[in-house]
Amino acid sequence: MRIMYKRQVHNSTAFIQSLVANTNTTRLATQSSVERTRKKASKASLKKKPGKWPKEKIPDWLELNDTFNKHYRKPTNFDLNKVNRFFNNAKVKFEWCVSKFDDIPGQKRKDSSLHQESDNDISRKYERENIKHTTSINSSPEVIFLGGTNVGKSSILNNITTSRVSRDLGSLARVSKTTGFTKTLNCYNVGNRLKMIDSPGYGFGSSKGQGNVTLQYLLEREELVRCFLLLAGDKDINATDNMIIQYIHDHRIPFEVVFTKMDKVRDLDKFKKKVTSSGLMDLPALPKLIFTNSLTSSTSPKRFGIDFLRYTIFQSCGLIS
Ligand SMILES: Nc1nc2c(ncn2[C@@H]2O[C@H](COP(=O)(O)OP(=O)(O)OP(=O)(O)O)[C@@H](O)[C@H]2O)c(=O)[nH]1
Ligand SMILES: [Mg+2]
Question: Where in the sequence does UniProt note compositional bias of the Basic residues kind (predicted)?
Fold first, then answer.
């Protein structure tokens, strides 16, 4: 499946012409035009930067997690402490990285034994279907992070596995400003209890092959218990996001929604309206909405929402009620 943002392609001839025109202008610039440019630049620098939260009014993002998840039981402090203790102390190790679904260790063997099964062995097939998305018997349950390129999937993995007391994120998964940086499915084993899968993003900077391996993983991986779909808090939910939501919904793949980069949200009311009108809360699957920021700054001094996300992961793996 090829998923691409609809981007406006500029007219290259006009673009080159405008470059040439600009070059000429620069060459022929008179003293007065230089003055004008300088004045413009100094005016622009005087313009106020788009509003940052005043220190005394930093929003409590945690309140958002409560507001938008009213139909779910709020985790107790005891639950949150238990889950935090696990993630703060668990040994995390990189387990595999694949660009083809069949290359996942053990997957090919599983598939070939599946083909050998006689057609009338319906009960085993039924049993396997029931196991899928609920629990795993021999291997640890897996959760996957999905989302557009650059939305913060690799960062959220580092966020989850970094101790709450540490200010800087660990560097388990590689993070980059470059769009489409993660190119394979990457699996991390957390304390031998569960596995977290980082995935290549969809949209700009992605490729058909990357999309295919992710979709095949979603449809066929028996160990998968929950998808976490990431949406950037500071951006609009776009057509590709909606397509993916529709896809995982139609294929009955259990999922939750994680808003990332909440530190970049400047207008909380506008943000709340965006979420309310997105239709996410009206989906029959009732995904949880989790609001997070993986980077901290003076106006977003904590990694908000990570407790709730960790708790939801733990819960989806059947490790807490
Ligand atoms: N301000 C802010 N920046 C973030 C946050 N999370 C991630 N970023 C930045 O966003 C950029 C992309 O982050 P990644 O974690 O690599 O995103 P990704 O979804 O894995 O990207 P691809 O692998 O390219 O699909 C990096 O520059 C991160 O530092 C966040 O919560 N707040
Ligand atoms: Mg990545």
Answer: 37-52
Q: What is the pLDDT along the chain (321 residues), one digit of tens a residue?
A: 333 323 232 333 332 233 223 333 333 333 455 455 555 555 544 444 445 666 666 666 668 888 899 889 999 999 999 999 999 999 999 999 999 999 999 987 776 666 555 445 544 544 444 444 444 445 899 999 999 999 999 999 999 999 888 878 898 999 999 999 999 999 999 999 999 999 999 999 999 999 999 999 999 999 999 999 999 999 999 999 999 999 999 999 999 999 999 999 988 889 999 999 999 999 999 999 999 999 988 777 888 899 999 999 999 999 998
Residue with the smallest CA separation from ligand 1 atom 26 is 177
pTM: predicted TM-score of the whole model, two decimal places:
0.79
Among candidate residues 222, 200, 219, 221, the one with its CA nearest the CA of residue 211:
200
Pocket lining: 315 vs ligand 1, CB cutoff 6 Å: no
The second-level CATH assignment, the architecture, of 57-316 is 3-Layer(aba) Sandwich (3.40)
Q: Name the residues around ion ligand 2, CB cutoff 5 A.
A: 153-154, 182
Is 166 exposed, middle or buried, given 0-12, 13-18 or 19+ CB atoms closer than 10 A? Answer: exposed
Rounded Cα gap, residues 228 and 230, in angstroms? 6
Any idea which ligand is nearest the CA of 235? 1
Give CA separation, 290 vs 51, 255, 264, in Å: 24, 12, 16
Sign of CA dihedral 112, 113, 117, 122: negative
Pairing relationship of beta strands 185-190 and 92-98 according to DSSP bridges: antiparallel
